[in-house]
Structure formats: C-alpha cells, structure tokens
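Section 5.1 Outputs to date
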Amino acid sequence: MNLILKNATYLFISNVILRLFSALTTIMVARYLGANDYGILSLALAISNIAGYFTDMGLSHHSHQVKNLGLCTPLKTWYPF
C-alpha cells in the first residue's frame, strides 16, 4: 500500500507541475503573439485537433478493445498493435 501511495504522490506532483508549465507557456505565447495572432493560433490548433478525430476514425479505441478481449494474438499477423 505504501508503494501505491508513493507512486500516486509522484503522479499527482508531476501532473501539477505539467499544468503549471502549460499555463505559463500559454501566457507567454499569448503575450508574445498578441490577441489577434494568438486567436489565429488557437483556431488553427482547434481545427487540427478536430481533424485528428476524423483521421483516427476510432482506430485507437479499437486497438484497446481488441487487446482487452484477448484477441490480439490471432490478429497479430495483420494487426500490428
């Protein structure tokens, strides 16, 4: 139980540090670019994220389902994930 608590603490601390770093980076980029250019950057990132959902076509979730069903071994010849 002690090992689980230790690992959960490391995970929590790393998550907080990552969020703080991300917030500071966003603030610095917004101040450097200005309101108009940061808005264009945000719009481009949003469009690329939405396009990523369509290009994935649900394959990343399907690979997890196949592994969880235990069907990964017979499908390994044609399904490399």
